[in-house]
Design brief:
Chain lengths: 404, 384
């Protein structure tokens, strides 16, 4: 079984690789596929690392190396400078012109999400939380096609529950299967509408590198920024809709990734409803371990400083996950600081009677102000996310607030 | 999981109902759309001149994502997005419209560098005290039939003066039905051909009415999408004032020319008036009724390079262009039409990527010539 699965995957990748030698087919991939021998070497290495917890269940010795391997690969993929230099190196090594090198050469469809799934498996394996899977089950989880490119990042334990469901053998299960068919189709249609009608229309005027330098009116700059805010939500959530919909068609109940994030009244709620599975992943594998470790090792450290370190570094990581650039880092820190301020505010208002004994109108006004502030904060943060460099973002901020 | 269905047959009925209802609604709306075929009416619905400022030239764009503009074939939508559709004509306005090709539209020129912008900067006042407002209704393809089609819409906007700019490339008979805007408005073109008895062959497949499928929502999806995109790009037009992507560098008009005397499918060494669609100019005059027209033969680049003894530029062999000017002058004199032959009025340095596209300076110089022509017309004795 293991051999058949391995042979199948290798054959598919080799077939794609072979297209480089066929003029009429070359190249069905965005960049010229690597040569067969390179595919084979890389694939063998990758598979060896990825499946080490399954193939060698007792050899937990390998897990940290595998995590490190994915982390380094991640840094090389996400850093434009490192990706460019790596491409120059690899092209030179294989006798190609280094002038053709582009950072995109290293881009690997679905890499980010695949590494999250693999690191989760490796980490749970290290912690002794991972049940034993067959290689077929593991590969199905790691390469599950609906979620391969854009998530959601499912936990393997939950995924296996769906995978191991018994075959339908009674009426209720037949109904459930049909329920899934209807709900899945509905979700896919909603996703397609959100992506191709709404998000792609908003993309015509949403803030981007080109139009950020062309607009000089504050009003229109806000319109462009709002266009971006809604575009990114609709675009990203539409992928999730389609993934969840396809999952339902196959009787998988993938986790939700969005829950009306722009309606939330504080930043913590926002991050509990925006890219939920990524936030949960980081909470489980980064935020909780680091804050726990700080609490254990630095017992004299005030709580607020542990929170600020945890939140800033977690959000900086989320920012850098999108690409290792200054702007993504600023975006992450922006949210990290926002979360910290909200955390302190919440702590402070807990005991203040003015916030406890509010009339209905006061409550409504407070709720509206909270929503406006949260939405404004998140929207403003997109300035750094949408644009490639600090100067351009700075220009946009100056225009938005008419700062001379 | 709690199912919304009580028994196993229910989901099948539900799915069947959804499919049937979807199909019925799809067929119903397509039939309604086919019967009404409201594409033109939809073109009249516009956010321009209401939420967004009207465009100063007709929509046209080869790279929409960079120019925030796109070429569409719904002429109603083109006009409703234009500033000429902004409310009624003010009583103190002397309305001048420019009809022409890409040179008039202002290829590689920003909105404030075009002929209309230069003329408006002159702030001319006519003899009865009305301020001159010039509207650019040029469209970047060379065909007199296209010009006539645009003019047929433009006359509804009550112009006081029509300035029709052209070059020889707009005249050959094989150019008349070539532009996509003509091919996508066949019924309107057919009406013009019939109404003015134009010398254009009507027995072409082009003029068959749209098929049933072409009239459905599905068949009209491109037109509907273009209407939505035109409206959406209104935001970027309002925000940036950009309606054309002007590259930093472009290939300059050809200086050294091929050793080639050919001009379309016309055999040298002479041109015949019947080779040219001169009858379309007359149709324009009839269409304009009492509104005066100034016809202008556009300036063009005159090469000094290789083979410039046999060709003026990329477009024209000398024999064809000289004959064209001769026929045009005869036609103008014969009909007593207002005519400005500006063919060699702008120096070669002022042409950009083609033999008819002017630089900002060239556009300014040409505007001065047009201004003079307008003032001469007001005096009643045009002497160009």
């Amino acid at each position: 079984m293991i051999l058949v699965t391995l042979a199948g995957i290798t054959s598919i990748i080799l077939l794609i690789g072979i297209t480089r030698y066929i003029n009429t087919l070359c190249c069905i991939t965005a960049s010229r596929p690597p040569a067969i021998q390179h595919i084979f070497i890389l694939f063998s290495l990758g598979l060896l690392f990825a499946s080490s917890p399954v193939i060698l269940p007792q050899k937990s010795f390998w897990a940290p190396f595998a995590i490190l391997f994915f982390f380094i690969l991640f840094i090389f993929q996400k850093s434009p400078i490192l990706a460019q230099n790596s491409s120059v190196f690899l092209r030179t090594l294989t006798g190609q012109s280094p002038e053709l090198a582009l950072p995109i050469d290293l881009t690997w469809l679905g890499f980010s999400y695949l590494s999250f799934r693999l690191i989760h498996v490796l980490r749970d394996f290290q912690m002794g939380k991972l049940p034993t899977y067959t290689l077929a089950e593991f590969v199905t989880y790691a390469l599950f096609f609906p979620t391969f490119t854009a998530g959601p990042i499912d936990r393997s334990q939950r995924f296996m529950e769906d995978l191991s469901k018994k075959q339908y053998d009674n009426d209720q299960q037949t109904i459930e299967k049909k329920d899934n068919l209807i709900a899945g189709t509905q979700r896919i249609i909603i996703g397609i509408f959100k992506k191709f009608v709404l998000a792609d229309t908003l993309a015509l005027f949403a803030l981007n590198e080109q139009n950020a330098s062309q607009v000089s009116s504050s009003f229109w700059m806000w319109i462009l920024l709002l266009g971006y805010a809604f575009r990114i939500f609709l675009d990203f959530s539409s992928y999730t809709d389609i993934a969840i919909g396809i999952g339902r068609l196959m009787d998988f109940r993938l986790p939700e990734n969005f829950n009306r994030p722009y309606f939330k009244k504080n930043l913590t709620e926002f991050w509990n409803s925006w890219h939920i599975t990524l936030a949960q992943w980081l909470r489980a594998y980064y935020f909780f371990p680091i804050t726990r470790s700080l609490r254990m090792k630095a017992k004299n450290m005030p709580v607020w400083s542990i929170i600020v370190i945890g939140q800033l570094s977690t959000m900086a990581f989320i920012g850098l996950w999108h690409g290792i650039t200054w702007n993504f880092l600023i975006w992450g820190i922006w949210h990290g600081l926002g979360l910290f301020i909200h955390n302190r505010w919440q702590d402070w208002t807990k005991t203040k009677t003015i916030f406890i004994n509010q009339t209905n109108i006061q409550k409504q006004l407070f709720a509206f102000s909270s929503w406006l502030l949260t939405f404004g904060f998140v929207t403003l943060g997109w300035v750094w996310f949408a644009l490639p460099d600090f100067e351009l973002s700075n220009r946009v901020i100056h225009i938005l607030f008419q700062i001379k | 999981m709690e199912s919304i269905f009580k028994d196993k047959k229910e989901p099948l009925l539900f799915i069947r109902n959804i499919i049937v209802k979807t199909l019925l609604l799809f067929i119903f709306f397509n039939l309604i759309f086919t019967a009404l075929f409201p594409i033109e009416a939809l073109g009249k619905i516009s956010l321009y001149n209401r939420i967004f400022p009207g465009r100063t030239r007709l929509p046209y764009g080869e790279i929409p994502e960079k120019s925030y503009n796109l070429g569409i074939f719904n002429i109603e939508a083109m006009f409703t997005s234009h500033i000429i559709s902004a409310g009624h004509k003010p009583s103190d306005e002397y309305r001048v419209i420019l009809i022409g090709d890409s040179a008039t539209w202002g290829f590689l020129l920003e909105p404030d560098q075009t002929l209309d912008a230069n003329l408006n900067q002159e702030m001319l006042i006519n003899s009865d005290g009305r301020r001159v407002k010039v509207y650019n209704l040029g469209y970047p393809v060379m065909s007199l039939t296209k010009d006539l089609l645009i003019l047929s819409y433009a006359v509804k906007y009550d112009p006081d003066l029509i300035i029709w700019l052209f070059t020889l490339e707009s005249f050959p008979l094989d150019k008349q039905l070539f532009p996509p805007i003509i091919q996508n408005n066949p019924q309107k073109v057919k009406t013009l051909i019939e109404e003015f008895n134009l010398n254009i062959n009507l027995n072409k497949d082009l003029f068959s009415p749209p098929s049933f499928w072409e009239r459905t929502i599905v068949g009209s999806r491109r037109n509907i999408a273009d209407l939505i995109r035109l409206q959406t790009y209104g935001i970027m037009w309002a925000a940036t004032g950009i309606d054309q992507y002007i590259p930093q560098e472009y290939t300059k008009r050809m200086e050294d020319l091929p050793d080639d005397k050919s001009f379309h499918d016309i055999t040298p060494p002479t041109l015949s008036p019947s080779d040219l669609a001169l009858d379309i100019l007359e149709a324009g005059v009839v269409m304009a009724k009492n509104t005066p027209i100034i016809f202008i033969n556009e300036p063009m680049f005159i090469s000094q390079g290789e083979n410039s003894d046999i060709r003026y530029n990329f477009y024209y062999p000398r024999w064809a262009y000289d004959d064209y000017r001769k026929f045009l002058e005869q036609e103008m004199l014969l009909n007593n039409w207002n005519y400005l032959d500006a063919w060699d009025s702008i120096s070669g340095e002022e042409f950009t990527n083609s033999a008819v596209h002017l630089s900002p300076n060239g556009s300014q110089e040409f505007a001065q010539l047009i201004k003079k022509a307008i003032q001469e017309l007001w005096k009643g004795k045009p002497e160009y």
